[in-house]
């Protein structure tokens, strides 16, 4: 597939923003599953690297697992490249080299190389930027790359990389139009990041049979949670147990939430499986877990009222968020600043959260996948009207043109001992973080 000749690449000296807008024009659709085009362009780039490559896929928990891996490996003294998506505020968040977010000019240099190698081949925004980051990592003398899968696994651009170790964190329903509408179909897609004879870490406590069957078919070295690795803990500390390695007296991860020990265990299982190539001492594990950070994943902001930011945008993630809210101390009222994209399962997400929320501040989101304020308000009201939703009595539902307006109204409504949870999408959290009314 070739781009129209009328679209010219940005001239020398263009800004990163100009480049990113250009990349949005290169392909007729935002997503097109398949590796043929991206492999074609990769063959004309220098993306090969002797670095150990850890690829992380899954419905939820990918970002947290990547963040903890990066933090522990950095604490152990390794040079680490981290690639994640999407971003919250700026595109640069997607790529870090040795713990530092990559600067605009460095990214632009890599974009120019990919553009020169493209030779008219049509690439999506994600495919183009993935190649740019892989090229950057190959030039950066890294010891380890930690790469988060964008969507699925089998046909995702990151899957052109042969993982030395692959992790699947969880398998649940999301992106049904691309991956299928059952856990079995989605598990099959995610399993394709595994490689023959290499470690395949599965931290989903009940993995789909399709994932296990594919791993068995290619003879991957499968590490199952509950069989090959596990964790235990009390109020003060926790311990990891692997096939041959035990790590005791660990502090709880800096990342908050009920599932973070599961994510940390997957990261530690991956490190154990690679221990002959990457030695990570106990002190580096402790330090790394304490220093890992990931904005927007059950992130609690300082000050009053308590403000929780969570990018939860599918049923599994919202169920975890509801559980995490239940594990917090008492708050008289909980207000939700909420918006979701039209292609997500809004009904299930709202049902999971309904028992915890006393007031909904719904907002429209921009773009073709965004919903109007009236549409999202009507959806929330319809779900809350169902007695099985277990919503509090006299729950209030309001709507606003922007997340910023909804967030400001929730702040005005709240008393110091109340809490506000901002959730539903990366866009929702990003717009709240960008709110002019608050300085974080």
Q: Report how far the terminal alpha carbons are from each other.
A: 44 Å
Uncertain segments are 1-6
Mean pLDDT: 92
Q: What's the story with the biggest beta sheet? A: 8 strands, mixed
Give the class-level CATH name of the largest domain: Alpha Beta
Describe this structure in words.
This protein is of the alpha/beta class and about 450 residues long. It has 15 helices and 17 strands. The protein has an 8-stranded mixed β-sheet, sandwiched between helices. A 6-stranded mixed β-sheet has the order 12-13-17-14-15-16. Strands 9-10-11 form a 3-stranded antiparallel β-sheet, with helices on one face. Helix 3 (about 60-75) crosses helix 10 and helix 12 (about 345-355) packs across helix 13. The longest helix has 15 residues, at about 105-120.
């Amino acid at each position: 597939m070739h781009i129209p000749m009328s679209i010219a690449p940005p001239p020398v000296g263009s800004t990163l923003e100009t480049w990113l807008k250009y990349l949005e024009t290169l392909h007729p659709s935002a997503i097109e599953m398949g590796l043929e085009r991206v492999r074609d362009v990769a063959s004309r780039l220098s993306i090969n690297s002797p670095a150990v490559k850890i690829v992380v896929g899954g419905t939820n928990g990918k970002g947290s697992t990547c963040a903890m891996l990066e933090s522990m490996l950095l604490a152990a003294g390794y040079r680490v490249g981290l690639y994640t998506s999407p971003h919250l505020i700026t595109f640069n968040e997607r790529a870090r080299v040795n713990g530092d977010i990559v600067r605009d000019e460095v990214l632009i240099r890599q974009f120019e190389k990919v553009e020169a190698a493209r030779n008219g081949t049509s690439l999506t925004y994600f495919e183009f930027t993935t190649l740019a980051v892989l090229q950057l990592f190959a030039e950066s003398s890294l010891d380890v790359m930690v790469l988060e899968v964008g969507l699925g696994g089998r046909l995702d651009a990151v899957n052109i990389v042969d993982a030395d170790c692959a992790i699947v964190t969880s398998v649940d329903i999301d992106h049904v139009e691309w991956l299928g509408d059952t856990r079995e179909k989605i598990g099959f897609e995610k399993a394709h990041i595994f490689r023959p004879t290499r470690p395949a870490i599965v931290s989903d406590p009940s993995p789909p049979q399709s994932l296990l069957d594919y791993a068995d078919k290619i003879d991957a070295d499968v590490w199952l949670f509950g069989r090959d690795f596990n964790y235990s803990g009390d109020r003060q500390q926790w311990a990891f147990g692997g096939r041959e390695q035990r790590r005791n007296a660990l502090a709880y991860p800096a990342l908050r939430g009920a599932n973070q020990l599961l994510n940390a265990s997957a990261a530690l299982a991956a490190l154990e499986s690679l221990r002959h190539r990457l030695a990570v001492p106990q002190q580096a594990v402790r330090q790394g877990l304490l220093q890992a950070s990931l904005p927007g994943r059950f992130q609690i902001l300082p000050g009053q009222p308590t403000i929780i930011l969570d990018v939860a945008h599918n049923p599994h993630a919202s169920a975890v968020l509801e559980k995490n809210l239940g594990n917090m101390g008492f708050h008289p009222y909980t207000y939700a600043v909420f918006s979701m994209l039209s292609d997500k399962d809004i009904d299930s997400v709202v049902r999971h959260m309904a028992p915890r929320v006393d007031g909904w501040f719904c907002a429209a989101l921009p773009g073709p996948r965004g919903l109007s304020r009236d549409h999202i308000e009507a959806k929330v009201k319809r779900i809350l009207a169902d007695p099985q939703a277990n919503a509090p009595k006299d729950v209030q539902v309001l709507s606003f043109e922007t997340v910023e307006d909804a967030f400001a109204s929730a702040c005005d409504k709240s008393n110091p001992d109340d809490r506000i949870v901002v959730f539903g999408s990366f866009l929702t959290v990003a717009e709240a973080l960008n709110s002019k009314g608050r300085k974080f």
